[in-house]
Specification:
Layout: E1 4-5, H1 8-30, E2 35-41, H2 45-60, E3 64-70, H3 76-88, E4 94-97, H4 107-111, H5 125-132, H6 141-154, E5 161-165, H7 172-181, E6 185-189, H8 196-201, E7 205-208, E8 226-229, E9 233-237, E10 240-244, H9 249-255, E11 258-259, H10 267-285
Parallel strand pairs: 1-11, 2-3, 2-4, 5-6, 5-7, 7-8, 8-11
Antiparallel strand pairs: 9-10
Helix pairs in contact: 1-10, 6-7, 6-10
The protein binds nicotinamide-adenine-dinucleotide.
Length: 293
């Protein structure tokens, strides 16, 4: 294997520590404690794990964590009323409604009911628009984490050919916007892209956000490219559950210059960036400059 391994776990730990230091300063200087409210509707097992980790890491960063657990049968109007209450609550600076939501609830309606300045997931249509037009915004956490790792490894991304595989609102589209802002030449590939391997082979930077286990092969990768693997796929190997990415790590690592592992790559960056966004929201809502992290 020739690729350098990009240690997202270590980078995320460092970021969370820097956020914690900034939170301590905010408390001391401005008597302000950032507060994050997380709303979980139903009992999706993966969501329960995420919400538990978010709570733990929010507390560790010195912030207030408010958890709201609602039954799967919760009517949409009840969830909208809770979001409205959180919008009005001055101790809440960040609001995150865990996705997916049960079928009776329109996720877009709920997300767009969050005050955009408290929308720490960055999914509100106003934040998507601000990001697309280069205005200060709360940026989706996983995409932000991908770009942070790429910049940490490669430095300035200006002029690089970037290929993003996946066009979801949660990962593909926002990561493409962030890379445009970094002055990359960006191609967004998706399920209808022709000759995907040839498209990916152009890339100095590959971001794979597909949700298909080990789809991207080493033969698709330009020698020396940086590969950021967003995929989290649970597969069975010898009767045991295992997490793999969207890239075939063994073959991609033979060719790439650097690569994120799964687990331990992009995954840990998501909550670290969520905490950063909560700090950002708390500062912005109170007219305080965001500290440099
Ligand atoms: P999604 O299902 O919403 O989107 C997948 C995208 O992949 C679609 O745009 C689709 O066009 C594209 N696609 C599907 N099949 C393809 C193919 N054969 N060739 C090319 N493109 C294809 O998924 P998502 O929410 O964007 O998540 C993508 C992956 O990232 C998943 O594995 C998910 O678990 C993971 N993820 C990880 C984190 C994290 O690390 N914290 C966060 C979000 C998502």
């Amino acid at each position: 294997m020739s690729a350098q391994v990009i240690d997202g776990k270590a980078y995320a730990e460092g970021l969370r520590q820097r956020v914690a230091v900034a939170v301590g300063q905010l408390k001391a200087t401005h008597k302000l404690t950032p507060g994050l409210a997380v709303v979980l509707v139903g009992e999706d097992p993966a969501s329960q794990v995420y919400v538990r980790n978010k709570h733990k890491q929010t507390i560790e960063a010195g912030m207030e964590s408010f958890e709201h657990r609602l039954p799967a049968s919760t009517p949409e109007a009840e969830l909208l009323a809770l979001v409205d209450k959180l919008n009005q609550d001055p101790s809440v600076h960040g609001i995150l409604v865990q996705l997916p939501l049960p079928a009776q609830i329109d996720a877009n309606k709920v997300i767009n009911s969050i005050n955009p300045d408290k929308d720490v997931d960055g999914f509100h249509v106003v934040n998507a628009g601000r990001l697309a037009t280069g205005q200060d915004s709360l940026v989706p956490c996983t995409p932000k984490g991908c770009v942070m790792l790429a910049k940490d490894k490669l430095g300035d991304l200006t002029g690089l050919e970037a290929v993003v595989i996946g066009r979801s609102n949660i990962v593909g589209k926002p990561v493409a916007q962030l890379l445009i802002a970094e002055s990359c030449t960006v191609t967004i590939a998706h399920s209808k892209t022709k000759n995907l391997a040839d498209v990916v082979r152009r890339a100095d930077l590959v971001i794979a956000a597909v949700g298909r286990p080990e789809m991207v092969k080493g033969s698709w990768i330009k020698p020396g490219a940086c590969v950021i693997d967003v995929g989290i796929n649970r597969v069975e190997v010898d009767g045991k559950g295992k997490l793999v990415g969207d890239c075939d790590y063994a073959s991609c690592a033979q060719v790439a210059g650097s690569i994120t592992p799964v687990p331990g790559g992009v995954g840990p960056m998501t909550i670290a960036c969520l905490l950063r966004n909560t700090l950002h929201a708390a500062c912005a809502l109170n007219g305080i400059a965001m500290p440099k992290l």
